[in-house]
Amino acid sequence: DLLLSLASKYKNSTFINLMDNVEGAEKLYKRVKQMNLTNLLVAALPDTVDDTLTHKLVESPEFFRYQFIDLEEFLLLIGTLDDRESFNRMLGEIISSSVTTFIQLPSAQTMSLAFSTFYPADIFDGRNSKELTKEDLYLHDNHPFNFYKNGEIKIIRE
Question: What keywords appear on the UniProt entry (predicted)?
């Protein structure tokens, strides 16, 4: 919806949406046609964005003004690469192919709740809260724990 809104508002800009899901790409393409947007290209890739594509983007003479990496793609990028060095290289290539890159990251509250759900033993080791009971662990008002505050910034710095 953000992409469609931007493409509608900025008619003189060109938007490219790379998707790894053919069904999702077809659904978006139908919406683009319905809205009569001629400045939005929707492409379905056979696989997720990989280092071959990002390397070609960096070598290409084209340079984007803005690009946006949504949360789902960012998490897929983290999950599909073998090691930290590969992730850093690929993300660096993506970022260097435009003037401005927007990356949607999970909020500190979301990260805190997720880690509390999947790793509750780590929450009760004394680092996060000495007064928190197990019943309160999943109340969103108790999050983010101190460790996860400003988590978005910590991810970018890492």
Answer: Signal
Q: Where are the alpha helices (DSSP H) in 81-139?
A: 84-95, 108-118, 120-123
Tens digit of pLDDT per residue, the chain (158 long)? 788 998 899 888 888 887 777 888 899 999 999 999 998 888 877 665 667 777 777 777 677 778 887 777 777 777 666 777 877 888 888 888 888 888 887 888 887 787 777 777 666 555 545 566 667 777 777 777 777 777 777 776 76
pTM higher than 0.70: no
The token duo for 102 is 């927007």
Identity at 25, one-letter amino acid code: A
Domain ranges of the chain: 2-103, 109-157
